[in-house]
């Protein structure tokens, strides 16, 4: 009889947010796979739990190598508990490979629901939450980051990103360039912790704020693109959108047509705006 893989959500800040079942699973698991064994030790001490099972590390550096070992434990009937540093395993954290391998071997996979930075930030953002998509971390290189943002420039669902504090200003500036400086967003910092802060505003405004330096764990929530005809788009914004598409590899004719549909205006209006901007430069 095969065992069970348990994905356990852990607090993203306040230890009091730990679900009651987390302590039970930590105490009873045969194997605990932890992203950081030192953090796991602090967590168990805070919860007053003494694990009976074997504790092994399971992080990005050894995930591929350790997954087969854990799958064999599961195949042998063990109850394996997977915990990451904060939040839900496999959501921008180790776990996906193990879940996929366990499913492949017909091993039962279940979860201990817990805190989530994605959902917490969405709820606090003040932006639409009926439809959203999680984009994780953006690439570190500027060119790749811009390319990834251009891919979702027309996405109408609310976007959620994780970001490192030392890259936040560059990321917000890139978002302002691609999405427009007036696109609404919320920067959620240190969620559920002592210095929790939610800063809301346009992307341009938030980029200027972040340039002064920001610390802590960061989640960024960005409003989706407006529906066609839902806004009055001025000539400068039309030109900016065409430029973004051209930089992404579109021919000018196709870029103008796409922006016209997106903004709900005739193609001639976009064309005239682009020509006027070109003449102004010359």
SSE topology:
Elements: E1 4-8, H1 20-28, E2 31-34, H2 37-47, E3 54-57, H3 63-75, E4 79-83, H4 96-104, E5 108-112, H5 117-125, E6 132-137, H6 142-151, E7 158-163, H7 168-179, E8 184-189, E9 197-202, H8 203-210, E10 218-222, H9 235-247, H10 252-263, H11 267-281
Parallel strand pairs: 1-4, 1-5, 2-3, 2-4, 6-7
Antiparallel strand pairs: 7-10, 8-9, 8-10
Helix pairs in contact: 3-4, 6-7, 7-8, 9-10, 9-11, 10-11
Q: How many β-strand stretches?
A: 10
Give the low-pLDDT segments: none
- Tally of individual helices: 11
By helix and strand content, what is the structural category? alpha/beta
Q: Helix coverage percent of residues?
A: 40-55%
Rounded to an integer in angstroms, the radius of gyration calculated over CA atoms is: 23 Å
Shape: elongated
State the separation between the terminal residues, measured CA to CA: 76 Å
**Beta-strand content:** 15-25%
Give the SSE string: EHEHEHEHEHEHEHEEHEHHH
Largest beta-sheet characterization: 5 strands, parallel
* Mean pLDDT over the residues: 93
Strand order within the widest sheet? 3-2-4-1-5
Main location: cytoplasm
Function: Catalyzes the 2'-O-methylation of the ribose of cytidine 1402 (C1402) in 16S rRNA.
EC number: 2.1.1.198
Family: Belongs to the methyltransferase superfamily. RsmI family.
Could you explain how this protein is built, in words?
The chain is of the alpha/beta class and 282 residues long. It is built from eleven helices and ten strands. It has helices at 20-28, 37-47, 63-75, 96-104, 117-125, 142-151, 168-179, 203-210, 235-247, 252-263, 267-281, and strands at residues 4-8, 31-34, 54-57, 79-83, 108-112, 132-137, 158-163, 184-189, 197-202, 218-222. It has a five-stranded parallel β-sheet with strand order 3-2-4-1-5, with helices on both faces. The protein has a five-stranded mixed β-sheet with strand order 6-7-10-8-9, sandwiched between helices. Strand 2 (31-34), helix 2 and strand 3 form a beta-alpha-beta unit. Helix 9 crosses helix 10. The longest helix has 15 residues, at 267-281. The radius of gyration is 23 Å and the shape is elongated. The termini are far apart.
């Amino acid at each position: 009889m095969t065992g069970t893989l348990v994905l356990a959500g852990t607090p993203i800040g306040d230890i009091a947010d730990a679900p009651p079942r987390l302590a039970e699973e930590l105490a009873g698991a045969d194997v605990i796979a932890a992203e950081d064994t030192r953090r796991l030790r602090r967590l168990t001490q805070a919860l007053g739990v003494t694990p009976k099972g074997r504790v092994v590390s399971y992080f990005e550096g050894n995930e591929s190598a350790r997954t087969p070992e854990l799958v064999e434990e599961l195949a042998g009937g063990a109850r394996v508990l997977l915990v990451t540093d904060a939040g839900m395993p496999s959501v921008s954290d180790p776990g996906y490979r193990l879940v996929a391998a366990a499913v492949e071997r017909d091993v039962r996979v279940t979860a201990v629901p817990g805190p989530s930075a994605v959902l917490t930030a969405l709820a606090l953002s003040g932006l639409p939450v009926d439809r959203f998509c999680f984009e994780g971390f953006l690439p570190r290189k500027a060119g790749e980051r811009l390319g990834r943002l251009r891919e979702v420039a027309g996405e109408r669902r609310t976007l959620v990103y994780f970001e490192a504090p030392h890259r936040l200003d560059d990321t917000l500036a890139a978002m302002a360039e691609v999405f427009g400086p007036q696109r609404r967003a919320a920067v959620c910092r240190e969620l559920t912790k002592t210095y929790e802060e939610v800063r809301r505003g346009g992307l341009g405004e938030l980029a200027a704020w972040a340039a002064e330096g920001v610390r802590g764990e960061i989640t960024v929530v960005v409003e989706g693109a407006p529906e066609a005809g839902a806004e009055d788009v001025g000539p400068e914004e039309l030109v900016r959108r065409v430029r973004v598409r051209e930089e992404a590899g579109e021919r000018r004719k196709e870029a103008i047509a796409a922006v016209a549909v997106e903004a709900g205006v005739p193609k001639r209006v976009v064309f005239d705006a682009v020509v006027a901007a070109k003449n102004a430069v010359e």
